[in-house]
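Reopening this one. Same input as before:
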Amino acid sequence: MNVPLWVWLVTGAVILAFFIFDFYSHVRSPHEPTLKESGLWTLFYIAVAVVFGGVVWAVWGHEHGIQFFTGYVTEQALSVDNLFVFALIMGSFKIPRKYQQKVLLIGIIIALVFRLVFILLGAAVIAAWSDIFYLFAIFLLYTAIKLVIDEIRDAPETNPNDMAIIKLVRKAVDVTPQYHGDKLTHRMDDGSKKGKFAFTPLFVALVSIGLIDVMFAFDSIPAIYGITSEAFLVFTTNAFALMGLRQMYFLIDGLLDRLVYLPYGLGIILGFIGVKLLFHALHENNLPFINGGDNIESVPEISTIGSLVVIVGVLVITVLASVIKNMRDKPQGVVAVSHNHYDWDEEGNKIVRNTRGDYLGRAEDLSKEDLPN
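Same output, byte for byte:
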């Protein structure tokens, strides 16, 4: 796949333009996006990715087109797992929902920059040492097994405030005790530090989102390299998946806990890609202690279309199984589903809003019927 430098530059400029548009049209004025708004913009960014995939198909052939769509679907699936952690961070830092868009967008941009660096490094390493696929395969298989085991054991999520880097940030700089609108910095207005420059909790949360997403890149980038070795496709699948991540967060925020089998599905997908990478590494083997350094031609190569079928199939089965379990777990009779949702005010109090974003009251003061379920 020959991708001229100008194509890289134009693609990067278009992606940057989308992020700038996103900021000025949605994020600059703090507000909580409605379900309709989130749904429409999620569909818009999926459509943009489909159009781009069509261009790849038309210009570079069907094989690379299928690789793009397979990588994009895989990235979207792994991105949903990111949303669980994003929701944890938002709750841990008690970020008001109207400010969450800014944290997500800037954090995602930071993560994309780091991912581009990882992708280019990965491409350089693969070009110099193709047997790196063995390490990718082992890492993905380990991650897949750990993901499933942690889910079986119901391992607790890590509190972002317990992360070493976040503790270091809080020690290295002054952080205000509460939010000041959607500002990332503020001058202290009381106490012995009056007038002193400080960061707000929103900045610390932003750092958390960016770092967590970079950590997820250690799973997703080897996974995409298991589908295609083309750095351009690896980057664009990451970019298009991340572009719609902010809208998707608000769209499925309330549904995350109901996708009970998603971690198992993601574990199967990562494990499958790990096996695919292992087969590819054996097929292209150069290690002297394996088959005398010769390629193992008898090892099957899993096709890209086969990978797409497996990944989509696992996702469909995972979602359907989760839906069936939720239906079976409901008590007998008709259960009214609350469409209210939790939020936080700027003092860190847990509050409840309805679908229009209207304030209903503090969670501790409301009846059980008014609380989200």
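So the earlier flakiness isn't reproducible anymore. For the record, The beta strands are 185-187, 197-199, 341-344, 350-353, 359-362.
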